[in-house]
Every structure is written in structure tokens, then in C-alpha cells.
Design a protein that fits this description.
Length: 319
């Protein structure tokens, strides 16, 4: 007669059941036991700590952080991309952006797409959209090791049933006269006008730093100094915003070829993508300024944004 309290026997039976996936009937037959004896031994293994069962929500399904942020910010939804996956954090964020957009697009909608490294990756993960119009919201911003908005709009054009409205121009030019001339070109003017009819926009928000903004590294030192002096904390579609999410008045504004912030504010659904902790302050500002109804963040951005909100709450006067 076996010793039902023998720790080694309890461990072996537990391995058979929990790790090898064998049924209680199979274990009982092999060891000359009854199914009820096996069940009793499995219970004993848990009670003695030989078996410890942990139940948790996988990171990619854990919505608690996003729900808390959405409530605190007053936005429709905050989606936190999974961390610790086999892909890079940016690719995981891009996949989340792609899923979010695909879930929201309905036939005959007009979709506006800005450019960032993450949004470009997201476009590559979109295999199908219902018949719709896709408007390029900003001119091209080439970045070493990445593509640009022109390549991205061509990706959307390749999808069946999708009509595109491209902007064949740089995002930032050298002077206001050149920018005005480009914005007046018929094809570009039509795209910018079409942006007044957006149902959904997808934009990136980054901090005003070389780490977080692709525009930062493509403007002059005087532009950077002017922006800092004017209180810029972030950038969205080439436009600089302050802590309240309002447009920062600098000479750079007149040299941008793309949609304006007011066009984004009038868009019913704006999906903001943000990568890295350095973007968190800018995301907070964008939401304050009425830009963004859904946020798609990587864990670093979500964590930093949580800390910002916690600090705001601590600093708020008591009722």
C-alpha cells in the first residue's frame, strides 16, 4: 500500500497531472490507485506547497493600467501594448496601433494618417481595410534606418478598395514662402482640404527632444532654441505644443506642410501613438489640448504618464 503522504510520490503524481497533462484515470491505472486516491494526493500536494498555482493576466490582455489612465485622462480608451514579447517594443506598439485602427474603420470612412516610425511599421501590419479614403496628413520626413510618409501612403494604396490622398512634399521646408507654395499645389491642397472631412486620424505625439521627435533632428539649432524659449514640450505632426496642448508660436509653424492642430481637434476620433517615457509629458499636453480620444502607448510611455498623473493628483489642493 503506497504512502499517500510521501512527498516524493506526491511530487511525481503532480508532475504527471500538471506538467505532462495525464488524466487522473491514467495516473491511477499506472500506479495501481483509484481515481479518488489520485485526486486526494493532488489536493495534498497543493496544501503542502509541493504544487503552487499562480493565476495572472498576460501582459497583452491586462487592461487595468489602460483603464485607469483612460479614466484619469477622460479619454475614450488607453491601450498599453504588451511588453516583454519576442518583438521589439516599437514593433509591439505598431501592431497595437494597427489593430486599433482596423477595429475602428468602417466602410466609406475617411482616415487621416500622419507619419512616425511606429505608424510606418503599423501600416505594414495592416493587410485589409474596408473601402475607404486614406489621407496623408503630413509631408515626407525621411529618417535614417526607416522609410517615410510617401512610402507609407503607397502601402495603403496597395490595399484593395482604398483610395489615397498623398502629399508629395517634405514635412519641413526652409522658408514660409516655399511651404505656402507647396500647400497651394492642387494635389496637396486637395489632400489638406480632404483632411477637413476625417472620421479617424492616426498621429504620433513625441516629446520635444532628439530621442522622441523625428522633427527635432531635422531643424536648425535656432529653431530648437526658439521652441524651448516658447515653452514647447512636444510635437504632433510637425507642430509644437506647450504644456496645455496649444500651438507654440515659432517661425517653424509657417514652414510645415501638413494638417493643422485645429483640423485634428475637429476629427471625431484621433488615435495617438506614443513610444518611450520621453513622450509622456507631450501626450498629457495633447490630451489637455483636445487632441486625442484613444491613446496607444508602449509600457514605458504608460508608466511615465501614470507617474505624471500621480504627481498631479498629489499636488492638487484638497477639497
Amino acid at each position: 500500500m503506497p504512502d499517500f503522504d510521501d512527498p516524493e510520490l506526491l511530487r511525481e503524481v503532480s508532475v504527471d497531472f500538471y506538467l505532462d497533462g495525464r488524466s487522473k484515470v491514467e495516473i491511477a491505472k499506472e500506479r495501481g490507485l483509484s481515481r479518488f486516491q489520485v485526486a486526494r494526493m493532488l489536493n495534498s500536494a497543493r496544501e503542502l506547497g509541493i504544487v503552487r498555482i499562480e493565476i495572472s493576466t498576460p501582459a497583452h490582455l491586462d487592461t487595468s493600467t489602460g483603464s485607469a489612465l483612460a479614466e484619469a485622462l477622460g479619454v475614450r480608451e488607453v491601450i498599453v501594448a504588451p511588453g516583454g514579447s519576442s518583438t521589439s517594443p516599437r514593433d509591439a506598439l505598431a501592431r497595437a496601433v494597427a489593430r486599433t485602427l482596423v477595429d475602428r474603420v468602417k466602410p466609406q470612412m475617411t482616415i487621416g494618417v500622419s507619419w512616425s516610425r511606429t505608424i510606418e511599421l503599423a501600416a505594414a501590419h495592416i493587410q485589409h481595410l474596408p473601402p475607404c479614403d486614406v489621407v496623408q496628413l503630413v509631408g515626407a520626413q525621411p529618417v535614417e534606418g526607416s522609410g517615410n510618409s510617401l512610402e507609407m501612403i503607397q502601402r495603403f494604396k496597395s490595399l484593395p478598395g482604398v483610395r489615397t490622398w498623398p502629399i508629395w512634399a517634405p514635412l519641413v521646408v526652409q522658408d514660409e514662402a516655399t511651404a505656402a507654395g507647396l500647400r497651394a499645389q492642387p494635389q496637396i491642397a486637395r489632400a489638406l482640404e480632404r483632411a477637413n472631412q476625417l472620421d479617424i486620424a492616426v498621429v504620433a505625439v513625441g516629446g520635444w527632444s532628439s530621442e522622441s521627435s523625428t522633427v527635432y533632428s531635422n531643424v536648425s539649432r535656432s529653431d530648437i532654441a526658439d521652441a524651448a524659449a516658447a515653452g514647447a514640450v512636444g510635437e504632433c505632426s510637425g507642430h509644437l505644443i506647450d504644456g496645455a496642448g496649444q500651438l507654440v508660436a515659432t517661425p517653424l509653424n509657417g514652414r510645415i506642410v501638413g494638417v493643422g492642430l485645429d483640423q485634428l481637434r475637429r476629427t471625431p476620433e484621433v488615435i495617438i501613438s506614443a513610444h518611450g517615457a520621453a513622450a509622456a509629458r507631450a501626450v498629457r499636453a495633447a490630451v489637455r489640448g483636445g487632441i486625442g480620444s484613444t491613446l496607444v502607448l508602449d509600457p514605458a510611455a504608460a508608466g511615465a504618464l501614470t507617474e505624471i498623473l500621480r504627481a498631479e493628483s498629489a499636488a492638487a489642493p484638497a477639497d
